[in-house]
Specification:
Blueprint (H helix, E strand, L loop, with lengths): L2 E4 L2 E4 L12 E5 L1 H17 L8 E6 L3 H9 L6 E8 L12 E4 L9 E9 L3 H11 L5 E9 L12 E5 L5 E2 L15 E4 L3
Parallel strand pairs: 4-5, 4-7, 7-8, 8-9
Antiparallel strand pairs: 1-2, 3-11, 5-6, 10-11
Helix pairs in contact: 1-2
Length: 195
């Protein structure tokens, strides 16, 4: 397999941003780095529940869909799933600070062990809103897993029990994350280069 060095990371040839539609990107996290960490998180999350205890994952759309898919496939236990959609970005590169619900859950949470699955936590405003709403629905437990954590952008303190990667304040795309609904299908996480 051909490899290249970019930003200090060794990349598989499939991760190279050399196609016309992703040419303005630099790779931050490779497909292999993501898959390895997601598998580790799946083991940790599953181990936090006793065998036979239910585990209900609530993915926040649209960004967390790939993370959720890979996470549940790496779990060796029965899980149930649901989805919510909220918006605080619109089509820009920074959070508006105003969170609005676009899609609510299909099932109740009362008495369930719930893990919120988020793509990225930056200001904490969206996650704080979600945690408050879901906590009011009386789950047995409520925890949060995020793929990417940007603590330098926090405006409110939020608890995140499971973190994939902590990153600097850069606008990232790929592996479910988008810019104007583009780049979600990239197998890696990239940074949009200015200019």
């Amino acid at each position: 397999m051909r490899a290249a060095r970019l930003s200090g990371s060794v990349l598989a040839s499939g991760d190279m941003p050399d196609r016309a539609w992703d040419a303005g990107l630099s790779v931050l996290l490779t497909r292999e780095q993501i898959q390895q960490r997601v598998a580790e998180l799946a083991r940790i999350i599953a181990a936090d529940r006793a065998p036979g205890e239910d585990l209900h994952l609530v993915a926040i759309l649209k960004g967390a869909f790939l993370f959720l898919g890979d996470l549940v496939r790496a779990m060796d236990r029965h899980v149930t799933l649901d989805f919510m959609a909220v918006s605080s970005y619109g089509k820009g590169t920074s959070s508006s600070g105003e969170v609005r619900m676009v899609k609510d859950l299909d099932a109740g949470l009362e008495g369930r062990n719930v893990v919120i699955i988020e793509d990225i936590v930056d200001t904490g405003l969206t996650l704080s809103y979600l945690q408050e709403i879901l906590r009011a629905r009386s789950p047995r437990s409520l925890r949060t897993a995020c793929l990417l954590n940007k603590p330098s952008r926090r405006k409110v303190d939020v608890k995140v029990e499971y973190v994939g990667f902590t990153i600097e304040d850069r606008f990232v795309v790929g592996y479910g994350l988008d810019y104007g609904e583009r780049y979600r299908n990239l197998p890696y996480i990239g940074v949009i280069n200015a200019g």
